[in-house]
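Hi C.,

You asked whether I'd gotten around to modeling the 677-residue construct. I have! Everything is below, sequence then structure, no commentary in between.
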Amino acid sequence: MRPAIGAWCLGLALALAAAAGVTVATAARAEPVGRSTGDRLVGWDAYRRLDRLPYLRTDTQALQVSSFDRSGGDFDLSTGNRNGTGGCLASGGAGCIVAEDRGAGEVDSIWFTRDGGKVTRIGNIRVELDGRTVLDAPLQSVVNGALGAPFEWPLVANAAQSPGGVYIKVPMPYRESMRISVTSNLEYYHVDYRQFSTGEGITTFSPSDRALDVLATLRGAGTADPKPPAATVVHDERVVDLPAGAAATIAEAGGPGSITAVRLQLPEPNDRLLNGLRLQMEFDGRTMVDSPVGEFFGAGLGAVAVRSLMFAVTPQPGGSLTLSAWWPMPYAHSARLALVNTTGDAVAGIVGDVATAPDPQWESALAGGRAGYFTARSHSAPTTLGQDWLFADEQGHGKFVGVSQTIRGARIKTAFSDTAPYFLEGAERVYTDGAASPQWYGTGTEDLYEGGWYFKAGTRFSDPLTGQPDQRTATGGCADYCVAVYRLMLADAVDYHSAIRFGIEHGKRNMVQPDYSSTAFLYTQPDDTLAGGDDVRPGDPVSRLLHGYADADATDQLLVSEYEGSEDTRPVIGSVRSTAAAITFHVETDPNNRGVLLRRTSDQANGFQCVDVAIDGIPGGTWLQPRNNPIHRWLDDTYLLPPPLTAGKAQLTITLTPTPDSPPWTASRYLLETVTG
């Protein structure tokens, strides 16, 4: 563990709570937290304005810090993930720092587990935003809801409400700094947060806004549309009979507008029907959804109750089943929804009710790429040994907003259990925009769905944003051990500019081979919003000369190591330049840019590398990288240059000044990419 960070990268003094018990800041705010800044949803608007979910951003990136095993794990099939060995990022705060950031951003999801889900031994959790402590209380009390709104279920949950894990999903924006720490005894955790290129329109979170309306919306999940009501809604209601192999249209609409709700009534539901009946959606002539209805609505194994915020399955008296979805699904010119019967048997009397809201905003928003088309990527197959299962592998511009997954596997004997559903040891890895490092690297499958310990022996639950609504053992079409799970990522959506690869292991290091099926939910545009730019190689004398690269007291080192993640057995050889002095270089860029991404390839043997950034001599924020990995040392990370400092310029002079007492700044490459959208 590193010594206390001190003030070298704080930018301002962090207020520390002196009380040993519960402390929650209640200072009054000058303006509402979470107002939307243009198309960017911040704070409570992530849940208050779900009608704006299709809008895409180019000035946001989603990141995660977690306790993933920095070694990547061994190849011993008998043991589970030792992800708790990731440990603290540093000492400080309440004792053990688990997340830290500089600049504007938002904390969106915090998850912990240990001792089967009892987190009393972790002690206090402290959240410091912009130099003020907004939360300092025993973690167990927080997740139990003892602090009151907004820290109440379902924005917080304990291990009984989210079996085996605890979470805090209160969106907490900040303008200048964030630090999250716990007292001690850290084991498994992840923190999901977003970074913004500027703090424009951001107001620091305060728990004095109790967000009772958001809590009410979340507690009503699965019973009503969570979006604000549209001015005009038109319903297309039809009853269809489907012979085997047949398809039938259940709704059509002309644009511009948005599908606001889809409801299906199945008179005689069964597991085979929910897997064999497919929902297809076309928007503006392109098929964007082709999914089994069960998994699309969160019930991938069969007919069970589901109550998520954006979809639901509701058993009705008499044995029928109602399937509902409330994703906003915009189109510029046309929309068509159809059902396809692949079950092999005729299906009669399906009732469809599709709600449409005419709205002229979507024509220009979709045509200009400001909004994305609702997209569901569904596929089903046996997993492949040694390869992550991919929820989504997309090119273009968009954001990932959730997944419904179905797993059919077998239990094995391990060192810790005679009947372990070992496939749940698999961790998610998320890569965006061609980076070789994952932006998210999780700690296990049930941890992604924010439970823990194999969901405490298969306990079923259906929360507004996460759930395991179904789990079966050798019954109901399951050969041995099967689960259906989902997670919605609304505040913590993963934005991407040119590509996303969102995958998950099946067992540690993909060492077992269950059958997987998944439906990923995204908003997509086919064209990316990045253009390649200058490529600066600090270790190359010619590149330094061409870019006016200057530093002092720098050293060059040959590094032979690997990237963490799915390629952690492939050695990469390169030169890394290291310095504690200021670095300056010139880069060419497009004057018509809408922002610039500066990607660094570096050596992450030492964490908390930190520099002050200046563009043409004007301060442009602080670039802090808290992650470290002394085993897999290569790292790609990205800094979002503030658009006001890059607009209209054909050349930029970038200065990176390491902050006092921080480790030397390392770089093998800087790649400049221009935002064009």
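If it helps when you're writing up: Confidence is low (pLDDT under 50) at residues 1-8, 10-37.

Thanks,
B.
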